[in-house]
Design goal:
Layout lengths: L1 H5 L2 H25 L16 H17 L3 H37 L3 H4 L12 H21 L1
Helix pairs in contact: 2-3, 2-6, 3-4, 3-6
Length: 147
């Protein structure tokens, strides 16, 4: 059972896409700030979108394994929901967090309300999502043709 799981091309593609995108997040952050931050691997937001990479690898892998079938359509819908969330909903939540943090700081309410600073970088730009999709799809193609 475990051997079947770790040798499954769909799982290999998805996990490789997450690994590559996570490592790239660390490297992009290192280049931007000069600081090595291993925790960037697990952070939401940033370049590239690991969520988009994961679901793109999943979708392309399902296509290679099952072709155009019902499961492919389900996977496409799932991928679109995840990508939309990564780009649209979470990006807006990040903008709202920035505004709320500024209001709380300006009014000096941190101690009075006993609240913590909200995470501001939770969503992705269009480019970050597109790069994630490209990474995931490319890795799935490589896995299915060369592994």
């Amino acid at each position: 059972m475990l051997l079947e799981f770790i040798t499954n091309k769909i799982m290999i593609s998805c996990l490789a896409a997450m690994l590559v995108s996570g490592i790239l997040k660390i490297l992009f952050k290192l280049k931007k700030t000069g600081k090595f931050d291993i925790y960037q691997f697990w952070q939401t937001g940033g370049m590239p979108s690991s969520h988009s990479a994961f679901v793109s690898a999943l979708t392309v892998s399902v296509f290679f394994i099952d072709g155009i079938d019902t499961i492919l359509y389900v996977t496409i819908v799932f991928a679109l929901i995840v990508i939309w969330d990564a780009f649209g909903v979470r990006q807006e939540a990040g903008k709202q967090a920035t505004i709320i943090n500024r209001i709380v700081a300006d009014l000096k309410l941190e101690k009075k309300l006993n609240i913590f600073k909200l995470k501001e970088l939770v969503g992705h730009t269009t480019t970050q999502v597109q790069v994630g999709i490209l990474i995931g799809a490319s890795i799935a193609v490589l896995v299915h043709f060369f592994v």
